[in-house]
Amino acid sequence: MDVHVAAHQHEAPTGFVRKYIFSMDHKVIGIQYLMLAMVAVTVGMILSVLMRLRLAWPLEKWPMLAHIFPEGFAGGPMTPEFYLAMLTMHGTIMVFFVLTTAPLSGFGNYFLPIQVGARDMAFPFMNMMSFWVTFVAFVVMLMALFATGGAPIAGWTAYTPLSAVGAIGGPGMGAGQTLWVISIAIFCAGSLLTALNFLTTVLNLRARGMSLMRMPLTSWAWFTTAILALLAFPVLLAGGVLLLLDRVGGSSFFIPAGLVISDKHLTNSGGSPLLWQHLFWFFGHPEVYIAILPGMGVTSHILSTFSRKPVFAYKAMVGAIFAIGFISYVVWGHHMFMSGMSPYTAMAFSITTMAVGVPSAIKTFNWLATLWKGQIRFTCAMLFSLGFVSLFVSGGVTGMLLAQPAVDIFLHDTYFVVAHFHIIMGVAAIFGIFAGMYYWYPKMFGRLMHEGWGKVHFWFSLVGVYCIFMPMHFLGLAGHPRRYAQLTEFKYLLHLQPLHLFISIAAFITITAQVIFFFNFFWSLKKGKPAGDNPWESTSLEWSIPSPPPFDNFGPIEPIVHHGPYEYSVPGAAKDYIMQTDPPEARP
Amino acid sequence: MADRANAITMVADDWSGGVHPYAISHKKLGMWLFILSDSLTFSALLVGYSYVRVAARVWPTPFHFLPSVVTATLMTLVLLSSSLTMVMAVGAAKQGDRKKTTRYLLLTILFGLAFVVLHLNEWMGLIREGMRLSSNPWGSPLFGATFFSLTGLHMTHVISGVIYLGFVASNFSRGRSKPDDVEVSGLYWHFVDLVWMFIFPLVYLLSVKG
């Protein structure tokens, strides 16, 4: 073991460009990712507002919007194609550029090295590249919005053969869909670099005394998520390359024989649309956990901090994170029960899917046990973490329903599925991001966010998202298909129209309430209360250094770790928390 | 601070922090992880290939022993030789013999280029016979599509490898990089070689006229 952790490799840059734009500092890159996610989430929310307008008032013509999008409102209400384009871009931008970038690349970049006691990532230059690669991917994705013919309409899953046949598939399926595929391929490359960097950092750069079992659960979550990203994105990349070849090279990997589109008989033959679904979901299911696992880590960390209690069953928590990560690779078939799958295969996928419930339940009960008899401090970060637990349970149990092939035959492609994945993968993950933001904001910017406005933001968000997504279960049970823009033509759905109106109004209020967050974020940069080093009396390494941390994180001191990550309320100790870097005597 | 650190007896095992648990550098660990990830890209393509092949009612097997199998065998030999010279280069680098290392690296690059030339020549021949991404004279259009995408991705890796080795050789010959860097590039090169050992039987030998 003669290889010791190398000292900091590069000096602090001085010029503006090297310091803030092409920076190799993991902290700056983390904030860049968070900013990218904030821009992306704004775009994604605007797209969802347009969709909700169409669903709540199906026949309204919106002259002002028609002025901005003349083709999307050609002479009347929003065209179904325009609706599908909004839907595709909403899903893609949210999943890739918000739910993947913010919790993993954003917070992970900033806090993973500090939490394990490193001065930077293992590969700072590659870290910078991964951000700018992701940025280019986002720009290309935005270009798809403005491409000739408009944005693609194949959904965030880009199901073939629709996404493979080219411009004949409809508006946006020409240049728009091609740009979509290129953007996703670029994104895969960026995520791969990030994952490599995270794993090497955790394995090689932990400070003295930071054994694996002393890592905070946030670090464990980022580590596991990086493994998932490392092994999932290359498969999507392969699928993306094949899809691109189908689109521009004339191959027919995903196009079956005898396909007739718009009265035109295609000459392709031999391909299989199912192959795309397999490749996509082999990536797509782990991707769901890439979005949610960092939220679980943040929640575990915050619940323990603000209950002033050690996290309940730390080892079981670590095991559960790993179990969820592992199982996520053997469940992809549950997205394809209705795509033509042998009942025996479906049964196997059903069982593995239900098995995810075991580690998930372990985590949930451990969270509750962490809270049990704790001295709970209801800060904004704590509230959002509690909200995360609530949403995780609400969204998780419907997952168990959908795991049954027989039930899924009815519920597949209905609003029930929309409700399920929005609650668990979308909103729960977003609550994890908010929790992390309120918790780490003082460390990142040296000032606290306003707690009062934060609480207003929390209550609007929690009640709001339940008002939006709970009724969607009823829509789904009533047989309401997802992705349909034109509902007035289905008699059996007409009586559900008031529910759509309710959902839309709830969505508008909830989205408006997010302005509070953005205002709080920027207002607190200048006017927030100064934070000090450790405003939450927390234990992990990032709270032992100044806020914001200096360029090399720990200054001249080499951090040495003597304690586990959750030493709260240790009997006989001087304070009710022992920091990981406190001397061994701190624990009586 | 240092005194206190020394005074404290800590459990000094490989995983307690402050050490590299596998006793390898960041670069080498990163390369292993990249190889892990890249092997999934190739696996996805190979699984896709098997999928469409099994699903096809008739899969063409048009390759003749001469020239296809002979050429592919020659290419395999060239690539295997390049791995051998790569091993020599790594060995020489560890002994600190700069000249020998550079020579073996250049030899590896030469074998890599020979592979690419042979491969492109084979591609040209098949294209002349009418094989395209979109169609081929023998049956399922996916025969050409899977062939070109699999061998094409592999060839891209060989070409990137040749460029990569070029940088390593140039740096090492001028004393600007460590023996470890040569070894890391060797890992990549052997991996590309290994992938070919899957492509050769699955794509070539299984497509020979029965």
Structural description of this entry:
With 588 residues, chain A is an all-alpha fold. Chain A has a single domain (27-257, 268-586), classed as Up-down Bundle (Cytochrome C Oxidase, Chain A), CATH 1.20.210. Chain A has 17 helices and 2 strands. Chain A has helices spanning 16-21, 26-56, 63-68, 80-116, 124-145, 175-204, 217-249, 273-307, 314-327, 343-355, 357-371, 380-402, 405-411, 415-445, 451-477, 491-494, 497-527, and strands at residues 260-261, 264-265. In chain A, strands 1-2 form a two-stranded antiparallel ribbon. In chain A, strand 1 and strand 2 (264-265) form a beta hairpin. Chain A is globular and about 80 Å long. The model of chain A is unreliable at 1-8 (pLDDT under 50). Chain B is globular. In chain B, 74% of the residues lie in helices and 0% in strands. Chain B starts with a helix and ends in a 6-residue tail after the last helix. Chain B has a single domain (25-207), classed as Cytochrome c oxidase, subunit III, four-helix bundle (Four Helix Bundle (Hemerythrin (Met), subunit A), Up-down Bundle), CATH 1.20.120. In chain B, 39% of the residues are buried. Chain B is mainly alpha-helical. The chains are: A mainly alpha (588), B mainly alpha (210). At the A-B interface, helix 6, helix 7 and helix 8 of A face helix 2 and helix 5 of B.
Summarize the structure.
The complex is a heterodimer of chains A (588) and B (210). Chain A has 588 residues and is mainly α.
How are the SSEs placed, and which strands pair?
The complex is a heterodimer of chains A (588) and B (210).
Chain A: H1 16-21, H2 26-56, H3 63-68, H4 80-116, H5 124-145, H6 175-204, H7 217-249, E1 260-261, E2 264-265, H8 273-307, H9 314-327, H10 343-355, H11 357-371, H12 380-402, H13 405-411, H14 415-445, H15 451-477, H16 491-494, H17 497-527
Helix pairs in contact in A: 2-4, 2-5, 2-17, 4-5, 4-6, 4-7, 4-8, 4-14, 5-6, 6-7, 7-8, 7-9, 8-11, 8-12, 8-14, 9-11, 11-12, 12-14, 12-15, 14-15, 15-17
Chain B: H1 2-7, H2 26-55, H3 65-94, H4 98-128, H5 142-173, H6 179-204
